[in-house]
Amino acid sequence: MSLSQCVPFFQELSANNEKTWFHANKPRFEKEIKGPFTDLVQIMIMLIGQEGPPLAITPKDAMFRIYRDVRFSKDKTPYKTHVGAVIAPGGRKDPGPGFYFQIGAEGLFAAGGCFQPGKNELLAIRRAIAKEPEVIGDLTAAPAFKETFGALKGNRNKILPKEFKPVLATQPLIANKQFYYAAELGCDWLDDERLPQRLLEIYRIGKPLNDYLAASLRV
């Protein structure tokens, strides 16, 4: 499973993001990019499923399409310049926390948490934070988390619902409307046979926070 060819492919796609170029290079994309990436996604579904609970998804459920939805975007370039997948019980459509990884022109990127929680999911997470503000602080202050991801990321609301304002002074994360963490891995791992295990290590470091977010959604 060789993935280093993803980098030059997406560098070229970035410079030629139009249908004629992609159509001419689609066989290359299918063989050199989509095929090996699908293999990696399958391995990660298996490894993460072994961590529990078991996963009943396929790579097709987890992987995002290369085609961009340009209907409501000022950027009309038709293709994404990376391949990506979400490992979660519901795959890429799961509204809860998951483990995401992508490969693009700059190499490998891994992330987790809740990137786009819906209105109900955001309310549930904020209520969990308001109930025990110290818990999410302890999770994101864990040495392995900080070393791997830095801080918890996400856009914030400038105005909070009244019920959450008293918590803001002691736990600013309650203002977040996204709760995700990320790590840039570059290009060095793309041809390393230990890549699945490296991704699993990163998954395990973020798992306590993912479990916390998942639990908040079940209340």
Question: How would you sum up this structure, described in words?
Answer:
Helices cover 46% and strands 13% of the residues. It has a four-stranded antiparallel sheet. It has one domain: BirA Bifunctional Protein, domain 2. The protein is built from seven helices and four strands; from the N terminus they run αααβββαααβα. Helix 2 packs across helix 7, helix 4 crosses helix 5 and helix 4 packs across helix 7. The model has no long low-confidence stretch (mean pLDDT 95). Strand 2 and strand 3 form a beta hairpin. With 219 residues, it is an alpha+beta fold.
Listing every helix as H and every strand as E from the N terminus to the C terminus, the arrangement reads HHHEEEHHHEH
Structural class: alpha+beta
Distance between the termini: 41 Å
* Helix run count: 7
In which range does the helix fraction lie? 40-55%
The profile of the biggest β sheet is: 4 strands, antiparallel
Strand content: 5-15%
Q: What's the layout of helices and strands?
A:
Elements: H1 6-15, H2 19-51, H3 59-62, E1 82-87, E2 98-104, E3 107-114, H4 119-131, H5 133-141, H6 143-149, E4 179-186, H7 195-218
Antiparallel strand pairs: 1-2, 2-3, 3-4
